[in-house]
Each structure stands twice: as C-alpha cells, then as structure tokens.
Input
Amino acid sequence: MSDNQQDNPKLFYGWIVVIALTFVGMTSAAQMTFGIYVLDLAREFGWNRALTSSLASFNNLIYGISAIITGILADRCSPKKTIWAAGLLLGGGLFLSGLAHNYWQLLFFFGVLAGLGSGCCYSIPSSVVQKWFIERRGVALGVSMCGIGLGVFIVSLMIGYIIPVYGWRAGFFAEGVLLFLFMFVPAFFIVRDPEEKGLLPYGAKNNHPGGGLNNHPNLALLIKKLISNRTFLCLYGNQFFTCIALSIVSTHVVPFAEDMGIPKLAAASAMGLVGLFSGVGRLQAGFVCDKIGFKKSLIIFCSLCCIAFLYLITVKNLWMLYIFVVIYSLGYGGKAMALPGLAGYSLGTGSLGTIMGLISSAYGLGGFTGSILGGWIFDHTHSYVWAFIAGTVCYVVAITFAFLTKKETMLEGVS
Output
C-alpha cells in the first residue's frame, strides 16, 4: 500500500475498525441504564433500594472479572470470536432477565450472564483502536468511545418508552435483542492490528514511538511489573473511585428523578442525555488530549465531574437535572477517553488489551460499591444527598491519583 493510501482516512482500514468498535461500545448501555428498571422491580417484588440496586452491583462486579479475561484475549486471539461470545452472553442474559420471577433468577441472568457479556464493551475498543493509530490516536479513541454514550442514549429512550406501556419485562427483551445485534454484526469488520491487513499503524511512517510492551508477554511477569508500577496503580485508583461515583449516577439518578415526581420517560431521557452528551465529551476530548496531553485532560475532566456532583446536591426539578447532565456528561465522557489514552501513552500498546482489562476490573469493584452504597444510603436516610456527597469525595480522590501519574517505560522488557 502506498503512503497516500496509508494516511488517507477514507481509505485506511483502521477507520472501519473504529466504526465497528463504536457499536461494540454501545453495549455498555446494559450497565448504565439499569436505574430505569429500579423502581418497577422494587414495586413488583417488594424490595428496598439496596436489594434492588445490588443487582447492578453484581453485574458490575462480574463485568470487572470479564473485562480482565476479554482484555487478555484481545492481545492473544481474534477479537471477533471474543465479541461474538460476549454478545450471546449479554443478549441472552438480558432477554432471560425478562423471564425472571425472583431475585436469584435476576441475579444470575442480569448479574452474572449479562455481566460476563459486558466485559468487552470497554477493554477491547480502548485497546484495539490504539494498535491502529499512532498519529490521531486521541481522535480515533474519541470516536470509538462515543459509542458508549450513544448506546446509553438509544437504549434509555427505548426502554423509557417501553416500560410504562408494556412493562419492565418487555424492556429487557428489547434491550437484549438490540445489544446482541450491536455486537454480532460489527464484529465481522474488526481486525486486531494493522499487520493482519498488511498495513502499518496510522502515522507509523513518521517514526513516532510505538508502544512499550511486547504483544505476547508472560502474563504473570506482566502483572508483577504492573503492581509495582506507579502509573498503573494510579490509573487503577482513578478508575475505581470514578466508577463508584458513576454507578451512583447510573443506578440512582432515574429513581432520584422519579422520587421528585418526574415521569419515567422524562427521567429516562435524563439518563439518555448523559449518554448523548458523554459521546460529545469523548469526541471533543480526542482533540483536547491531542492538544494538551492525556494527563492534563484526565485531571480537567475529573474536576468537571466533581463540580457536577456538588451541583447535583441542589437539584430540585427536571431542568436543574438537565443542567447536571450536561456538565457531568462532558466530564465523564472525556475521562472515559483520556484514561485509556494515558495508559497507552505511559505503558505502551503491545499488551494494552491486558492492561485495560485489568484497569477495567476497577470498574467492577467501584461499580459494585457505588450501586449498593447509593441504595443503602437512601434506605437509611430517605434521601440521596449523602450519596452525592460521597460521589464528590470520590472524584477528589480520583483527581489526586490522576495528578500522581507519570510516563513510565519500565514495562518494555516484559517477555
């Protein structure tokens, strides 16, 4: 392939991979939209908020385990097969959730099966895209990561309409079918790295630095290196604390809105707008990161989320909630893009699937904590104020971790 073909975005196959991975990212909606089901499940089964939100907690926890597995697989085998298997688990788990008649069935179908299927929605797009791009990596990541927000927007509006008319079971049925298709069809176009197409990464001819880790390192040695690496530990800490706060939003903002008397579709639309504006945040973050760097961008975006949480404490009506949505979404979307970019820049791209899988496990732990914490606080105080204060504190800690990161290349020798 000529240099012109290599560098022309219209011809370079990496952009097709980016678009396909955007659809895969949309499947994160399964986690981000569970809050729309919370009050309906609580009413039908007589559960309190903590028990109901524990379903989201276990889904997040299993996701964290699955993210490690899919991240490792992304470095060692075809992402197509991994995504197809994940699609069957996610789509099947959501569909079966609509047939559940007790807590344990929902825990298995939504918490375990759907949680396992969600594992590749972040680790695979965030790692595979970076193998295809050296130049314009921030923009490519931003485009692929905007799928996460777009999926939340589409699914929120869909089930926000379906549940009041047809019931929560129909919501799970429709969501399962849609998210299965979002994984199954695009996977045909996903290739792990440009070498399989006889190409170089975008911008490689300009001798930009490649990335650190070898493609097939010894896993035990890699993990040993990572747990003594300051940047990895700081990124893990940042992910953990931001995901506690994020799961408070994803699980409890819709019930919070409904408690104020806001109709379900309007409340669900707020969650959908979190997805839509976070997609905008990811797109603009690509340009910001390419301009000022991933570390500064991560600090700025986490700070924006912190401000949004402080404002959320004062929200009293739908329009105030929409203002929160805009502020928070831009920060959350930018953070979701900046963190994997900083990981790739600091730790290299050779084993980035494994690294992002390990970092994504922090989402599972943070999500497990935040979802059930928000429900427990509400059950004991009959308010979400202290849950939102807890989220604010989490972002302060996350900003500290982002500030402590630095570029390290000590992992390059892993083999």
